[in-house]
Design brief:
Layout: H1 2-24, E1 27-33, H2 39-46, H3 49-52, E2 56-62, H4 65-73, E3 79-83, H5 84-91, E4 97-105, E5 109-113, E6 128-131, H6 137-149, E7 158-161, H7 164-172, E8 178-181, H8 185-192, E9 195-200, H9 201-204, E10 208-215, H10 216-221, H11 223-242, H12 244-255, E11 260-262, E12 268-270, H13 271-280, H14 290-306, H15 326-330
Parallel strand pairs: 1-2, 1-3, 6-7, 6-8
Antiparallel strand pairs: 3-10, 4-10, 5-8, 5-9, 11-12
Helix pairs in contact: 2-11, 2-12, 6-14, 7-8, 11-12, 12-13
């Protein structure tokens, strides 16, 4: 009895030590970018959907898809919502990555300063445009689709690779003549700067911009948790699509710090109204259709043409190799 009482504190400590790491491992880390394309990840967190599905989620913000994908490859994240070109690029280098669901269809608007007199994409020739970092999904589509269809080459204008927030600031500060923007930055730019939208790629060339990506190892070792996170994000997508005003209340503070935005022509506008309108301009979907997968292959082919994606054997990159739709099939979506 004396020996048992003597050993008891040490046994409790040993159990705590062994249980500690196991408990910590239950934390599920989701990476996101502060753009409307990632709204479902934010809404699932703020709306308590992850908790509802039994996950203790840590939402981790990144400044670019490149940094986010590095964290997934390095094992610092379990999943992330980002452009699929990141998975294609890293997979071509040998990384074991999987695209496991859809997220958002591409919304990218070209907005121009009114004083430039630019009326269409072809009019960007000789001007300065703020876009995303080179090699990103947005940059790939800008160079390989938007400019190409307008008869322009990237060298025909000056392209600055910056964050969406810096792009808006550059428009306001007259450092650029135009910008290729996500939401809600496109809507915000039109409210606070003398700019006009002249193009939106989703209207002419729809494509699955943002997807959910994980590593092959995480999918094997934490499959149940990965699927729970997808279930939570699917519920958040339903909210975004069907109740945008309710969703805006959950996520608007992520995009606009103050309760209102001071606009050029409409005075103070509630941020929730701006974000609601931005949500309505988007199409969110957890599904990757055959048509969307074909469009993803088109983008991968564009990346190879641009030299942004290189396979070891020089053969075309096969997008189907990195797509795992087991969750989608199991949920009969």
């Amino acid at each position: 009895m004396k020996l048992s009482r003597f050993l008891a504190p040490f046994l409790v400590a040993a159990v705590a030590l062994t249980a500690g790491p196991a408990f910590a491992a239950d934390k599920f880390k989701v990476g996101y970018l502060r753009v409307m394309d990632d709204a479902q990840a934010i809404a699932a967190y703020e709306g308590g959907f992850y908790k509802k599905h039994g996950l203790d989620v840590e939402l981790v913000e990144f400044k670019s898809g490149t940094d986010l994908i590095k964290a997934i490859v390095g094992g610092q994240l379990d999943t992330g919502v980002l452009g699929f070109t990141n998975a294609a690029s890293w997979s071509s280098k040998g990384a074991d990555l999987k695209v496991i669901s859809g997220a958002q269809h591409g919304f990218h608007a070209v907005v121009v300063r009114d004083e430039t007199g630019i009326k269409d994409v072809a009019g960007l020739k000789g001007h300065t445009l703020a876009s995303q970092k080179e090699g990103s999904t947005a940059d790939t589509v800008l160079r390989g689709v938007v400019l190409k269809n307008a008869g322009l080459k990237p060298d025909d204008l000056t392209i600055m690779g910056v964050s969406p927030q810096v792009a808006v600031q550059s428009l306001v500060g007259k450092r650029v003549d135009a910008a290729f923007l996500f939401e809600p930055q496109a809507s915000i730019a039109k409210l606070i700067a003398p700019v006009t939208q002249i193009y939106e790629i989703g209207e002419v060339w729809p494509f699955p911009c943002m997807v959910v990506i994980t590593s092959g190892n995480t999918l094997k070792s934490r499959k149940d948790d990965v699927w729970k996170s997808l279930d939570a994000q699917r519920e958040a997508i339903d909210l975004l699509q069907n109740k945008p005003q309710e969703a805006a209340k959950l996520i608007s503070s992520y995009f606009v710090a103050e309760p209102t935005i001071k606009t050029l022509k409409h005075g103070e506008v509630p941020r929730d109204d701006v974000i609601t309108a931005a949500i309505k301009s988007q199409t969110f979907s957890p599904i990757l259709t055959d048509k969307e997968q074909a469009r993803m292959q088109e983008i991968a082919d564009i990346m190879q043409e641009q030299g942004a994606l290189k396979t070891k054997d020089g053969k075309p990159f096969n997008v189907s190799d990195i797509i795992d739709l087991e969750w989608q099939k199991a949920r009969k979506l």
